[in-house]
Each structure stands twice: as C-alpha cells, then as structure tokens.
C-alpha cells in the first residue's frame, strides 16, 4: 500500500472512547518538547478531564532545532524548550508533577548500549510507580531518528512489562511522501475524538514558540513547524495504533 493510501486509511479508523483505547493511566513518551502536544495533546486533555491524568516524559533536550544560532546556544535553547513544554502541559491541564524531562541529546537518542538500557529502566520505574496500564510512543514510521529510538524504547519496555498496552501515535509519519511504500501490513488502531479539546490542543502547540519561528532570529535555516504538518495534526481526531 502506498503511503498516501495508508495515511488516508488511518483517518478512517474506527472512533472509540478513550477508556477503550487506553485503559487506566497512560505513560506518554515524547521524543522532543512539542511531540506531546502535536501527537497527544487531545488525549492528554481528555484524560485529565476524565480524572486520570497521564504521565508525560520528554525524552530529548530539544537542543538540535537551531544549530547555527549564536544567540541561542544548546544550553539556552534547552531551557527555552523545557519552558515551552511546561507551558503547553499547563494549557492541557497536566499536573506539573506528571511531566518529566530525561534530557538526552537531541538527534542522538540511543537505540542500544548502557544509556539506552538505563533510560528504559527509568521508564519502567515510572510506569510501575504510577501504576500505568497503557504506553504511548511515536509511530515506528515517523521519519526521524529520535522518534524511531523512542519507539524502540517502547518495544523493550513492553517486553519488560507485558501488562502494558502499547500504542503508537503518528506525527511526522502523516507527512510521508504519498508515492512511497511502507513495508508493513495495515496497522490496527483507533481514532480518538478530540473535538472538545481542539482549541486547547492548538493553543498548546502554539506554546512551542521557538519551533514556530517566533523566538530565534539568527538561524534562517533553523526548524520551523511546517504548515503541512500542522494541517495534518491539528484535526478533530488523533490516531492511536496497536504496536
């Protein structure tokens, strides 16, 4: 199936209630500060409204988005992106004590070795501490190395804690070239209606100002959220795939 056909089918998946999609408390792994809002903003807001706020873990420090900026070296940019993520979480209603930052280097999140194992161990501790039943990770076909690494962490964590339901949420995968072909069968999953929280999700995404070209002015080639991503991601449904 070509990418364009697959993505169209994702937006036709059956709509289910959050209780059916993700029972219990969810542990959400976001590769970068902003993925939590882009991929799961509506989910977070709905879970909070149901009285069972998720635990959100930002895996990387987000320092790689504007490498040519002199005014915003990595340390300053990391602080800015954490500030933006905290504001986005506040907008979504997430209690601040349920937001964690692991601080791994942007574009270098490990896929093996000691740092990888210690990170998964830390995630397992959080899952057990909060009695999580569901684990949300990026879709394996998101075309970014950090997204792929965090998906792999989710697979290893699922093997450690088999009771977790593992779900994947697409972000960049929704912008794959339409004429490409993925080497997998059509995934099973559901859509979550987030219409009641759409304005809140948009507001949370807007809180990531450095990624919208509103803060850093001395790196003209730095990252700016593309309109084709925002058009795909800020809709009345979010997609969650069994992984």
TrEMBL record:
One of its GO terms (molecular function) is hydrolase activity, acting on carbon-nitrogen (but not peptide) bonds, in linear amides. SUPFAM superfamilies: LmbE-like. InterPro entries: GlcNAc_PI_deacetylase-related, LmbE-like_dom_sf. This is LmbE family protein. It comes from Acetobacter senegalensis. The lineage of its organism: Bacteria, Pseudomonadati, Pseudomonadota, Alphaproteobacteria, Acetobacterales.
